[in-house]
Amino acid sequence: MNIPTATYRIQFRNGMTFDRAAGLVPYLKRLGISHLYASPVFTATAGSTHGYDITDANEIEPAIGGREGFDRMVKALKQAGLGLILDIVPNHMAASLENAWWRDVIENGANSRYAHHFDIDWSRRLTLPFLGDTFENALENGEIAIKPDPKTGRPAFACFDSFYPLAPETWQGREAELLKLTDRTEIADLHERQPWRLISWRDAPRYLSYRRFFEITGLVGVRVEEKRVFDDTHRLILELVHSGAVDGLRIDHVDGLADPQAYLERLRQQAGPECYITVEKILGKGEQLPAAWPVSGTTGYEFIESLSDVLVDGDRIRDLRTAWHNVMGKSVNMVAELRAAKLLMVTRNFEGEFTRLLTLAMAIAGTEKVPLEEQAVLPALRELLIAFPVYRTYGTAEGLPTESYDMLQGVAERVRTSAHAPAPEALDFLTRILAGEVSAEASDEAATFRIRFQQLTGPLMAKSVEDTLFFRQNMELALNEVGAEPIPRAFSLNRFHAEMKTRLERQPDALSGTSTHDTKRGEDARARLYTLTEAPERWAECVARWCQMNQAKVIRLEDGTAPKPSVEWMLYQALAGVWPPRLHPQDEAGLRALEARFIAFVEKALREAKLRTDWGDSNDAYEKTVLDYARHLLSPANQTFLQDFSDSLQPFIRAGLVNSLTQTVIKLTAPGVPDIYQGSEALNFSLVDPDNRREPDFAALARMLDEDKKVAFDVNEDRSGQLKQHLIARLLRLCQQKPTLFRRGDYLPLTATGKQAENLIAFARAENDDALIVIAPRLVFSALQENLTISSADAEIALPDQLAHRRYRNILSGEELSLGDRIDAEMIDCFTASVLVSI
C-alpha cells in the first residue's frame, strides 16, 4: 500500500483550480509533502464553496478545470513524484434541481430509476422544504405559479428561480391549459397530485421525508449500502484509482452510512489493496476504530484532542474554571449542560427523526405484542439517545457486534439508574430491539430501527456538542474543538504517551491533523489559547479590565443585558486567538480586515449557542447589540482598549508561538501521517468556517521557504511562521529518508527530572539501528515572563539502553553530539524543540 509520509490539504473552488494547484507542486515538493490531499472535486451545485453538495459523482467539476484540468494536475504531481488523495462523499448528495438524479425523483416519484438511490420514506409524498413560508401562504402571496421550465419547456411549479417538474401524468396533453392556469384552487389541486409537496424550510425538522446530512435539508442521504447505488456513485472514483491517478481516498462522514463496515469492505475490494483509505470519524475518549474495518485509520480529530494533554496546564486549569464560574455567576455543571443541549436537539431540531424512530418502535411493539403505551416508550427512547456517549454503534440487520452490544448494555444501565430513568420495561424493550432480540416477524422492522437509531446518534452528538455546547460554554475555547470531550477531565503527559502507544498499535497510518476545514479555530490560535490555563488569574484580570473599558456599549434589552459577561468573556478570548501577531493597534486597515472576519464569527457563535438567538429564529435586536459591541472592540477610535489589549496579549502570543512549534514537532514525529492544512505550515490563526477555508498566500509561503538564510527562533521577533515552515521541511525530509522509523518505530516515552521537568515533553522513536529523540518545551508562560532558562540543575532526561551511548545530530541546529545514559540540561533549550537523529 502506498502510505503517505505527509499530506497537504488543498481546498478547491473559491478561485483554487487544478491548474493553480499544479503550479504549487514544486513548492509542496520542497516542503517535503508526499501526497496532495484534495477537497471534493466532483461536480457540485453552482457556486459551491466546499464541494460536499455533489450533483454529479461521475463528473469532475468544470468550474475548477474539469477532467482535462484534473489530468494536467495529476501529471504534474506524478512528474514530481507526489501522490493524490481524494476526499469523497458517499453519504449524501445535493437535494438540488441541478442534481439530475434528484430532479428525476421529483418528476417521477417512486417510479424514478433513482427513487431508491436516495434515503427517502416512500410511505408518504416527498417533501421539498425550500419555501420561505407554507405552501398556502406562498401561493396566496403570488410566489408560486405554473410556468414553462426554461430548460425543458414543460410546465413546472415556479417559485422564484426554481422550477419543480410535474409528474408526467399530471401535465401530458394539457401543456397549453396548465401554462394558462392562474386559479389558486386549481394550482393547489395540481400540487396535491404530485409525488412531492413543497413545504416551508421551518417545517423540515418535523415533516422531512428523506434522511438529511445533520440538519442540512439541501443534502439528501444516499443509500450506498445497495450495490447498484454504490456502483453508480463510485464509477469515476474507481476509474481514477485503477488508472493510478488517485492513490488514496478520504471517506467523508462514514458514520452516516447504514453499514459502514460493509461499505468499506466493498470499497476496499473494488479499489484494491494498494489504495490508502482513511475515514472521517469522531472517536470518543478511549474509543477505537472497529478492528475489522479495512482502512488505515481516521483523519485525525482525536490527535488534536490528545495534544491538549501536552499543552494544557492540568494543575491551573481549575483556576480558569473558577474564574469562568465567577463570570457566569454560578458553578457550571457540564453534565447537566450536555444533557440540556442534547434534549434541545432531540426534541426540536431532530424532531422528525425522533418521531420516525418512535413510530417504528410502536409498530414493533404491536408485532411483538408488547403491552407498552407510547407515553412510556417516548421518554425511554429520548433518554437512550441522550445518554449515548459516542457517535454510534455498528449494528447490522443481524444485530450488534460484541463491542457495540457491550456499549449498549452499559448505556442502558446508566439510563436505568439515572435521575431521569424511564419505565424499565420500555427501556428493556428498546434495548432488545437494538440488540436484535426480537421475533422473526419483527426482524425487518427492528433492523430498520437499529440503522435509523445509529444514523441519529452521530448527528445528535455533533450538533449538541460541537455546534451547541461548545458555543455556550466558553471557559477555554481551545478545548471546544471537533472531537474534544465536553466534560471536564484531567490533563497529563502520561495519558498523551499512552495514547500515542495505542495509536502506533491500532492506527499507525492514520492522519495526524492539527487544522482542518472543519476545526473551530486554526492550530496556532488554539496553541495560543492553551496558555490561558497557565495564567488564569492574569487572564481574568484582563477580561475584567476590558469589560470595564467597554461598559458603555453594554445595552439593556427587554430580554436582558447584551452582551452578558459570559459572552464578553467569549468575545475577548476569541479575539485573543485570532489577533494577528504583527497587528498594531493603530493599523486601521488591519483592524478593518480583522473586523470583517471577527463579526462573521460572532454572528455564527451567537446563533449556534441557541440561547437568545438562533438560525431559525433570529433575535435581531440582540444580535445587533452584540455585533455593535464587537465592532467597537476593533474600532480605531477605541485606542485605550486596543493598546491595552495588544500589550496584555504579548506574553500569551510569545508562549503561544512556543506551543505552536511544540505541537508541530509532535505531529511530525509521533505515530501517524502528518497532515498539513493549507497555509498551516506557517501560522494559522483562523476562526470557524468559512474563515478557516480562506486561501493562504501561496506565493508568500513559497518565497519564505526559498529563503536560505539561517532561521533562528526568537519569540519576540519571529512572527511570520518561517521557523515553523522550515522545521516542517527539515523533518519531512528526514521522514522521507527514514520512513520505516517514523511509521513503525517504537514509541518510547522519556522522563525528565528536575525542577523544570514539567516544562518538557520528551519521547523517542526507535526501529532497529535508527533512533529519534524528541524534546519540546511546554508550559513556558512563566519562564518567558521571567526570562528564565533551564540550568544544569533544572532538568535532565534519562535514556534507556537502546538510545544511550550513541552519536546524534540535531536536525534543527545541525549540531552533532555524543550522548551517554542521559541528556543533561545544558543540551536543552527551554524554549526551542530539539530533534536528535542517530548517526
UniProtKB/TrEMBL annotation:
TM stretches of this protein:
none
Q: Which SMART domains match?
A: Aamy
Start and end residues of each Glycosyl hydrolase family 13 catalytic domain: 12-418
Highest rank taxon of the organism? Bacteria
* CDD domains the record matches: AmyAc_MTSase
PANTHER family, from UniProt? ALPHA-AMYLASE FAMILY MEMBER, MALTOOLIGOSYL TREHALOSE SYNTHASE-RELATED
Cited NCBIfam families: trehalose_TreY (TIGR02401)
- Know the name of this protein? Malto-oligosyltrehalose synthase
The upper taxonomy is: Bacteria, Pseudomonadati, Pseudomonadota, Gammaproteobacteria, Enterobacterales
